[in-house]
Automatic annotation (TrEMBL):
This is Peptidase A1 domain-containing protein. It comes from Linum tenue. It holds the Pfam family TAXi_N. Belongs to the peptidase A1 family. It comes from the Eukaryota. Keywords: Aspartyl protease, Cell membrane, Glycoprotein, GPI-anchor, Hydrolase, Lipoprotein, Membrane, Protease, Signal. Residues 108-450 form the Peptidase A1 domain.
Length: 527
C-alpha cells in the first residue's frame, strides 16, 4: 500500500506539471537564455574561474586582431557549410605539355617535381598505362645529358630515394604490390616490371612512395597555392627497348584508370574530381589539368569494360567516314592512348580507309608507312576528311591524319599516319587527338572531347563536395556496353510533406485532465 501511494503521488505531480506547462504555452510564455560572445568579458572570466590555460590569443575588443579572428572564423564556417571543394590541379612546373619531335618519339611531355627537396623530371604523359616511373639508381637507363638530344636544352635528372627525405620504400606486404608473389618475404622491397605495347620496351625496379607537387587554380582560374600529394611511383633502375633510344628518357607518367596512377591517388585523397584533361594543339604544345570534367557542350562516349573491369580507356567506334562516304561494317573497339604516337585500325577497317583515301590521291610506299603522297610544296593538298562515329550521334572529326616527310633533298610529301593493328582492337593515338581537349572522366566513365587551341582559360567549376554521396550517373554514363541502360527517373520535386503536427495546447490539456480522472479512479481502488 505505501508503494501504491507513492506511485499515485508521483503521477499526480507529473500531471500537474504537464498541465502547468500547457497553460503557460497557452498564455504565450517563452523560455530564453543569455547569448554570450566568444570574446566577451563573461567568457574570459569563466576561463579564469575554470583555470583554462593555453595559448589562445585574447584580442582587445574592436581591435584589428579582434576583427581578423572573427573573419577567420566566418571563413572557416563558410568552408564547413559548403563542404570541401575540389580543385583543378596541374604540375607545379606548369600545365604545359610539349612534343619534342622524332628524338622523343613524337609523344607529349611535361615537367613534374618529385621528392624533398624536389627534383624535376621531363616525363611522357601516357593514358595507356598506370605507373609513374622515373630513372632511379640506374643500372640500365637512357642517356640523361642534353648533348644526347638535339631538341633538349638542359640535362635530365636521376632520382634516388636516399636523397629524398619524404620517400618511403614499399614492402611486398603492401596491398598495391602487384608482384608480391615474386618476393621471398613480406618485408622485402616491392619490385615492379611494366611491359609496353612497343616491342621489347619495358621498365623495372622498385616501388616507392614520395610526394608530387602541383599548383591549383581558384574559382577564377588564377594560380593558387601549391599542393603536395603522396603518390606511388617506380624507381626505374632498368629500362629496355624504346626507353633506351630516346622515348621517355626521363620517365613516364601513367594516367590510366588503375589504382596506382597519379589521377587515382589525387581523386582518392580528395584533391580533385576523378577526371583529367589533355589538350594537344597542332603546333606540338598542349595542356594537362587534373580534375577537369570538360565543358558542358563537349561530345562524349562511354568507356567500355574489359572482362567486366575498367582497366583501360577503351571506347566503341560505331563507324568511320572518309569524306562524304561512310564505310560499311567498320564497327570496332579502340584504346585511347596518348602514349602511342600514331593511330592503329583493325586490318579490315584500315584497308577500307586507305582504299577510300587512295581513290582521291595517288600514293607511293614510304618506309615504314604503306601509304605516302608526293607534294611539291609544304602546303598539304586537299585530302578527304576522316570522321569517327560514336553512340548517341556523337562524332569525332580527325584534323591531323597525315604528317609531313622530308628527304635528303628537302620536303618530299606526306604520309597517312595510320597503321594496321595486330588484332581487332584499334588504338586512337596522339595524332588523332590533335586539336582537341580530351577529357578522361573516370567518375562518370566516359570520354569527352571538344575543339580547342589549348589556349583557352579553363575555369574550374566546383562539382560535388567531398563528404556527400556522388549522384548516380545517367544512363549515358553508367550503362554496360552491349546492354540497354534503364532510363533514368524524371527528376521532380515532391510536395513538402510535414511530419505529424504536435497536438495543440488545448488538446493537450484535455488529455491531461483525462489522466487526472484516471488517477482518481486508481486511487479509489488502491487507497
Amino acid at each position: 500500500m505505501p508503494a501504491a501511494r507513492s506511485l499515485f503521488l508521483l503521477l499526480l505531480l507529473l500531471a500537474a506539471a504537464l498541465l502547468a506547462g500547457t497553460e503557460a504555452a497557452q498564455k504565450g510564455i517563452t523560455l530564453s537564455t543569455k547569448l554570450i560572445h566568444r570574446f566577451s568579458d563573461e567568457v574570459k572570466a569563466l576561463r579564469v574561474r575554470r583555470n583554462v590555460t593555453g595559448s589562445v590569443y585574447w584580442p582587445e575588443k574592436r581591435s584589428m586582431e579582434y576583427y581578423s579572428l572573427l573573419l577567420d572564423s566566418d571563413l572557416q564556417r563558410q568552408k564547413m557549410k559548403l563542404g570541401p571543394r575540389y580543385e583543378l590541379l596541374f604540375p607545379a612546373e606548369g600545365s604545359n605539355t610539349v612534343s619534342l619531335g622524332n628524338d622523343f618519339g613524337w609523344l607529349h611531355y611535361t615537367f613534374i617535381d618529385v621528392g624533398t627537396p624536389h627534383v624535376s623530371f621531363l616525363v611522357a604523359v601516357d593514358t595507356g598505362s598506370d605507373l609513374l616511373w622515373v630513372p632511379c639508381d640506374c643500372l640500365q637507363c637512357a642517356p640523361l645529358s642534353a648533348s644526347s638530344y638535339a631538341s633538349l636544352g638542359q640535362d635530365l635528372n636521376e632520382y634516388s630515394p636516399s636523397q629524398s627525405s619524404s620517400s618511403k620504400l614499399l614492402t611486398c606486404s603492401h596491398q598495391l604490390c602487384e608482384h608480391s608473389s615474386k618476393c621471398k618475404s613480406p618485408s622485402q622491397q616491392c619490385p615492379y616490371s611494366v611491359e609496353y605495347y612497343s616491342e621489347n620496351t619495358s621498365s623495372s625496379g622498385l616501388l616507392i612512395e614520395d610526394v608530387l607537387y602541383f599548383a591549383s587554380n581558384d574559382d577564377l582560374g588564377a594560380s593558387n597555392a601549391s599542393v603536395k600529394a603522396p603518390v606511388l611511383m617506380g624507381c626505374g633502375m632498368k629500362q629496355s627497348g624504346g626507353y633506351l633510344e630516346g622515348i621517355a628518357p626521363d620517365g613516364l607518367m601513367g594516367l590510366g584508370p588503375g589504382k596506382i596512377s597519379v589521377p587515382s591517388f589525387l581523386a582518392k585523397a580528395g584533391f580533385i574530381q576523378d577526371s583529367f584533361s589533355l589538350c594537344f594543339d597542332e603546333e606540338d604544345s598542349g595542356k594537362i589539368y587534373f580534375g577537369d570534367q570538360g565543358p558542358h557542350a563537349q561530345q562524349s562516349t562511354p568507356f567500355l569494360t574489359s572482362n567486366g573491369n575498367y582497366t583501360t580507356y577503351m571506347v566503341g567506334v560505331e563507324g568511320c567516314c572518309i569524306g562524304g562516304s561512310c564505310l560499311k561494317q567498320t564497327r570496332f573497339k579502340a584504346l585511347v592512348d596518348s602514349g602511342t604516337s600514331f593511330t592503329f585500325l583493325p586490318e579490315d577497317v584500315y584497308e577500307e580507309t586507305v582504299n577510300e583515301v587512295n581513290s582521291t590521291i595517288s600514293s607511293f610506299k614510304g618506309y615504314p608507312w604503306k601509304y605516302c603522297y608526293e607534294s611539291s610544296s609544304q602546303d598539304l593538298p586537299k585530302i578527304p576528311s576522316m570522321k569517327l562515329l560514336f553512340a548517341m550521334n556523337n562524332s569525332f572529326l580527325v584534323h591531323n591524319p597525315v604528317f609531313k616527310v622530308y628527304s635528303t633533298q628537302g620536303y618530299g610529301g606526306f604520309c597517312l599516319a595510320i597503321q594496321p593493328a595486330d588484332g581487332d582492337i584499334g588504338i586512337i593515338g596522339l595524332n588523332f587527338m590533335s586539336g582537341y581537349r580530351m577529357v578522361f572522366d573516370r567518375e562518370n566513365l566516359k570520354l569527352g572531347w571538344s575543339r580547342s587551341k589549348c589556349e583557352d582559360e579553363i575555369i574550374w567549376v566546383p562539382g560535388n563536395p567531398l563528404g556527400t554521396a556522388n549522384p548516380l550517373p545517367t544512363n549515358e554514363e553508367q550503362r554496360i556496353p552491349g546492354q540497354h541502360a534503364v532510363s533514368p527517373a524524371v527528376a521532380g520535386r515532391a510536395p513538402l510533406r510535414p511530419s505529424a503536427a504536435p497536438p495543440s495546447p488545448l488538446r493537450a490539456s484535455h488529455l491531461i485532465k483525462l489522466l487526472l480522472l484516471l488517477l482518481v479512479l486508481f486511487a479509489s481502488r488502491t487507497l
